[in-house]
């Protein structure tokens, strides 16, 4: 499809959890992962029901510029995986930067570093990068893909001195374990100069009904993590000198 058109799942105009300030959040269709806990499985596939043009989206965003200025907010692309439509994002974000609007990308980082992706990265102020799992096999088990591209992506952001918020979902039996959190802290050390925050997202089952509605069998049979454990994980990361958000 032309880089002037995009497959969109939905738009939220008063978002406050996907980057700083009040945000215009665009949820893009399609994702390379099939996370066992995904709460947006309806974004996985290409869907022609809601195709937006670059100009119509840009004009709509401009209506909210005062809110962005007042709150220190801007635009966040999420999904699904927004960088599967990187050519569109590069064009949109180039226009937004021309209008001095803050841009963020909520991404799983599982993309090839094509020219379009590099161009989208160039015009993005802040990355919300989801780390699914540091162990390659566990990553494969959790998402259906290994984590090599994700780490390459983070290396590239580091080489470009891009600001990053690391997002880590805490899933019992996968990542909601003290040993894993300590490994995460050690892994992040190399990237410390670009990491502004670490966001911890305790696993929840709120997406389960969506899977049922789509006729899919929910893949994860674990309970949300214990609150005491989550507080301990937060303390471990804070002790390493990072600002931690708990969602
Ligand atoms: S990366 Fe996000 S949208 Fe894609 S499957 Fe995982 S949780 Fe769902």
In terms of topology, how is this protein built?
Layout: E1 5-15, E2 23-28, E3 51-53, H1 54-62, H2 65-71, E4 74-78, H3 86-98, E5 102-107, H4 115-122, E6 126-131, H5 136-143, H6 148-159, E7 163-170, H7 178-188, E8 195-202, H8 208-213, H9 227-239, E9 244-246
Parallel strand pairs: 2-4, 4-5, 5-6, 6-7, 7-8, 8-9
Antiparallel strand pairs: 1-2, 1-3
Helix pairs in contact: 3-4, 7-9
The structure holds iron/sulfur cluster.
CATH topology: TIM Barrel
Oligomer: single chain
Strand order of the largest sheet: 3-1-2-4-5-6-7-8-9
- Indicate the structural class: alpha/beta
Q: What's the β-strand tally? A: 9
How far is the N terminus from the C terminus? 36 Å
What Rg is obtained from the alpha carbons, in whole angstroms?
18 Å
CATH superfamily caption: Aldolase class I
- Principal-axes geometry comes out as globular
Low-confidence stretches: none
Could you name the CATH class? Alpha Beta
* Ligand species: iron/sulfur cluster
Beta-strand percentage range: 15-25%
Number of helices: 9
- Helices and strands, in order, run as EEEHHEHEHEHHEHEHHE
The CATH architecture is: Alpha-Beta Barrel
Overall mean pLDDT: 96
Description:
This protein is of the alpha/beta class and 247 residues long. The protein has one domain: Aldolase class I (TIM Barrel). It has helices at 54-62, 65-71, 86-98, 115-122, 136-143, 148-159, 178-188, 208-213, 227-239, and strands at 5-15, 23-28, 51-53, 74-78, 102-107, 126-131, 163-170, 195-202, 244-246. The protein has a nine-stranded mixed beta sheet with strand order 3-1-2-4-5-6-7-8-9. α7 (178-188) links the parallel β7 (163-170) and β8 (195-202). α3 runs parallel beside α4 (115-122) and α7 runs parallel beside α9 (227-239). The radius of gyration is 18 Å and the shape is globular. The structure holds iron/sulfur cluster (SF4).
């Amino acid at each position: 499809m032309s880089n002037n058109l995009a497959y969109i799942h939905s738009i939220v105009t008063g978002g406050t959890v996907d980057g700083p300030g009040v945000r215009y959040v665009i949820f893009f269709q399609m994702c390379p992962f099939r996370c066992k806990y995904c709460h947006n499985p309806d974004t996985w596939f290409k869907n022609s029901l809601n195709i937006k043009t670059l100009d119509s989206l840009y004009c709509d965003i401009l209506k909210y510029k005062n809110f962005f200025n007042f709150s220190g907010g801007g635009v966040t692309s999420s999904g699904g995986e927004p960088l599967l439509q990187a050519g569109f994002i590069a064009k949109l974000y180039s226009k937004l930067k021309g209008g001095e609007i803050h841009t963020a990308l909520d991404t799983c980082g599982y993309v090839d570093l094509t020219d379009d992706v590099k161009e989208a990265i160039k015009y993005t102020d802040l990355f919300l990068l989801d780390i699914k799992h540091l162990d390659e096999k566990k990553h494969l088990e959790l998402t259906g893909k290994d984590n090599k591209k994700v780490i390459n992506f983070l290396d590239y952001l580091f080489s470009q001195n891009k600001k990053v918020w690391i997002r880590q979902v805490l899933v019992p039996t996968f990542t909601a374990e003290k040993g894993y959190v300590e490994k995460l802290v050690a892994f992040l050390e190399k990237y410390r100069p670009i990491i502004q925050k670490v966001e911890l997202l305790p696993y929840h089952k709120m997406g389960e009904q969506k899977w049922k509605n789509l006729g899919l069998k929910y893949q994860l049979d674990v309970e949300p993590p214990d609150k005491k454990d989550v507080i301990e994980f937060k303390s471990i990361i804070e002790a390493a000198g990072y600002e931690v958000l708990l969602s």
